[in-house]
Structure prediction request, 190 residues.
Amino acid sequence: MSSRSINKTTPQRTPAKKARTKKAATRRVATPENNVKGKLYASLVVQLLSLLKGEHDFIANTANFSALLFNSLPNVNWAGFYFLQGDELVLGPFQGNPACVRIPMGQGVCGVAAQQCETIIVPNVHEFPGHIACDVASNSEIVVPLFDGERLLGVLDLDSPTIGRFDDQDAEGLNELVTVFVAHEEGIGP
Ligand code: SME
Prediction:
């Protein structure tokens, strides 16, 4: 694990960028389907808190976090973390097929989300310029940055074989989960 000292080039979240998601704003319409999704994310927050209770080992907790997401969210073929080391993202705990280990900042969906410090939803990865294909089964993706205060720690990445699998409700739910996670882990990090 790398030092936790703040690198001068480490992207810093600005208040203006907080909770931004790179996708056209859509008006949420309450349907039975998204209510189910909302309840699933609410239940995941409870389950995550239960997994984290009394444990502060960062690797163990990110491993369990990725396993919880992979096994609870439907149509997901990869769920895991990349952590910032210098000017690149390095593979952390995950569930799914083996993946590329290093992603330079600004490259792939993960590198762009990390550089821009914002959540990115990609409905069709084959249309995203520079997408890095780790699993040929992946057709859509969502990447959520993780912050320790204003410092970028890395990203949470989820892939799906289903085109358009992730929406604003997933972005909201996953952002809430990483916020809960980082609040628990605050001051530890990779
Ligand atoms: N698709 C990602 C690379 C990581 S894998 O999906 C696990 C990207 O373009 O950054």
